[in-house]
Amino acid sequence: MATTERARAILSGLASTRPQREKLYKFFHQNPELSMQEHVTSERILQELEATGISANRVGETGVVAVIENGDGPVVAARADIDALPVKEVSGKDYASTATQVDDKTGAEVPVAHACGHDVHLMSLLSALQAFSENKDQWSGTFVGVFQPAEETAEGARAMLAAGVEEAMPRPDVYLGQHVLASLPGGYVGTRRGPVLSSAFSVKVTVHGKGSHGSMPELGVDPVVLASSIVMRLQTVVSREVAASETAVVTVGAIHAGTKSNIIADSAELLINTRAYSSEVSEHLKEAIERIVRAECLAARSPHEPEFTYYDRYPLTDNDAQTTDSVRDAFDAYFGDEACDLDAVPASEDFSVIPDEWGVPYTYWGLGGFADTSTAVGNHNPAFAPDLQPTLDRGVEAIVVAACAWLGRRAE
Residue limits of the Peptidase M20 dimerisation domain (predicted)? Predict the structure, then answer.
């Protein structure tokens, strides 16, 4: 029970800080920012850390790393993503986002909302840092908070590595993360050994035809028909090439071709997304997509080789068994029946990029955000906005409880 008692002591101010934490959460919720553009968000995080006397530094333009050194002991790092989505919020909350922002990549002004709960994540980590800072007599070791930009575009973790994040923090003994979900009951925390989030990649495929008048298709090569054949053939990859014991998804999310009903275009573009729970299956999906596209192009007499542009690459999030067991034991002792098993989630993350680069064990758990899961919308839905409580309290509790599985009691 030492871990539980230590966590309760560190979290003793949770009730008294609740009004301030809820007010700050609403600020972040109402001021969301797109990936790699989180300037206001990171500046406010730095201000809050400075006010508590916590040492923190920028890493890159919008990443932030905070370090609390408190005597001998392990180094525990926890990560929170801080970016938002180009989505117009329709949650109905009285603190709903009405923000817009110019997208650096497209130049277009778009609505922005925290429709994936990253505001919950950053508030949970910020509050955990403040709790550890204000209760140093209850623990020993080093606690590190990593506020990571651009999870939604799979850029943030790699950008922090490129910007020298290893110079801003000691190498951790363990790396922790969490995500608020609609699939768990409100206030529950769910853990899972092994693969918990899928690997993913997207690919833009350009296939070439030969333009012609719509009334004379025999003089051209129709890229719309070619693209349609590719879409239908891709549906056989999972059903006929992936073992029933494995899980995979291949989705064609968009097709762009042509300008007018009586013009056969000279090219078509397909946007394809994949998910898998093993690197072997992911590689098979890549090979299958290229094989099928090339074969259909050959069959259609395409005049040029197809082009493949890969992007949004996410690694597999594969929870270390021993680390996950340590966190689950701590959760069971502290949360009781509200600690539960988490099913594998087909979404993807760049959380594991940094610990994988350093060879550090990690675990990533789910946080229930809605009291009524039967009516809760999923992440990325314009109406996604978790219940204010107990979500905010449970988020900080989960980080502190998990970290205390490593951070021992300070010597008298």
Answer: 200-297
